[in-house]
C-alpha cells in the first residue's frame, strides 16, 4: 500500500512534504518546513553555500546521500541553482570524484547528481569525467583542517585541458574546504582561469565532508 500511495502522490498534482510528509502541496516542502530552513551560510569570496548545515537541511542531505533519495537530491540541487542564479556563469561544472569503494557502496556520486541538476537549471554543461582520484584517501571525518590537507595531497588529477575556462565545483557539504582547495589547485594547474565552489550546505564544524 505505501508503494501505491507514493505512486499516486507522484501522479496527482502536488506532493507530500519531503521532510515531514505533510501535504500535498505545490512545493516540495510544506510551509512550516520551508520556514524552518536555515539561512545561507556566510562564506569568503569564491564559495557559495545555499544553506548552513543545520536542521532540516542536514536531514535532507543525509537522506539524499545515505538514503539514496534522488528526489530530495533534485530539490537540493534546484535550491542551489536558485542560489547561484545571479552569479557570473561558469563555462563548466565539475564535481569531486568519490573514492571507488564509496561509489560502489552508494551507487551514485551525490555531488555529480547535484551538479547535473544545477547545470540543467542554469544552462551550463557538466563534465562527468575529467577529475579522478589517483589515490584512495582515508575518511576525512574527524580530521582537522591541516590533517585533511595532508590527507588529500596528490589525491586528485584532472584529465582535461581547462585553459581559460571558468569552472564551478559543485558539492553537497563544505566543511573545512580542504577538498575544494585540493581540487581547485589541480583545476588551476589544468589551466582553469577561475574556480568557484558551490555547495548545498556549510557545516559549522569539521564533522563531515
Ligand atoms: Zn513539512
Write out the strand line-up for the largest beta sheet, numbering strands in chain order: 1-6-5-2
What is the count of structural domains? 2
CATH level 3 topology of the largest domain: Rossmann fold
Measured on Cα atoms, how large is the radius of gyration? Answer: 17 Å
Task: List descriptors.
209 residues, Rossmann fold, 2 domains, 8 helices, 38% helix, 16% strand, globular, binds zinc ion
Q: Could you give a quick summary of the protein structure above?
A:
With 209 residues, the chain is of the alpha/beta class. It is 38% helix and 16% strand.
Describe the structure in your own words.
- The protein has a four-stranded parallel beta sheet.
- It is built from eight helices and six strands, in the order H-H-E-H-H-E-H-H-E-H-E-E-H-E.
- Helix 7 runs parallel beside helix 8.
- The termini are far apart.
- It folds into two domains: 1-36, no CATH class; 38-202, Rossmann fold (3-Layer(aba) Sandwich).
- The protein is α/β, with parallel strands linked by helices.
- Zinc ion binds next to helix 2.
Helix/strand layout:
Blueprint (H helix, E strand, L loop, with lengths): L1 H10 L19 H5 L11 E6 L4 H9 L4 H15 L7 E3 L5 H7 L3 H13 L8 E3 L11 H8 L3 E3 L7 E9 L3 H12 L4 E9 L7
Parallel strand pairs: 1-6, 2-5, 5-6
Antiparallel strand pairs: 3-4
Helix pairs in contact: 3-4, 4-6, 7-8
